[in-house]
Design brief:
It is built from 1 helix and no strands. With 101 residues, it is largely without helices or strands. The chain has 2 domains: 40 residues, no CATH class; 48 residues, no CATH class.
Length: 101
């Protein structure tokens, strides 16, 4: 495994013969965002279940699955993600729904 440690990019092939070698496009993927802060993603959400104006600390994308499943009322199987990471963004705080009688 090879990990680019920026500002370098790794590519499988150079430019075709006779073409100029150009640097990677801005926003190119392949860097470890834990080592190069500029490569972190932005996340915005809005909707009836979400707290307006809430800002959260950076989080791993694996936490989105239980978050979305909760909003959809699904019983998500255990994964590497946790609803607790984003529960503060939900109007119900991530609480389990009351069973209907």
């Amino acid at each position: 495994m090879v990990i680019a440690t920026g500002p370098y990019a790794i590519r499988a092939h150079g430019p075709p013969p006779g073409k100029d070698d150009k640097p990677p496009s801005v926003g190119m993927h392949g860097f470890d965002p834990r080592k190069i802060a500029e490569m972190k993603a932005s996340f915005f959400a809005a909707g009836p279940d979400i707290v307006v104006g809430k800002t959260v600390q950076p989080f791993d994308n694996v936490n989105l699955y239980p978050w979305v499943a909760h909003m959809l009322g699904l019983n998500a199987p255990k994964t590497d993600g946790s609803l607790n990471v984003l529960a503060g963004t939900l109007k119900d705080g991530g609480a389990e729904a009351e069973p209907e009688h």
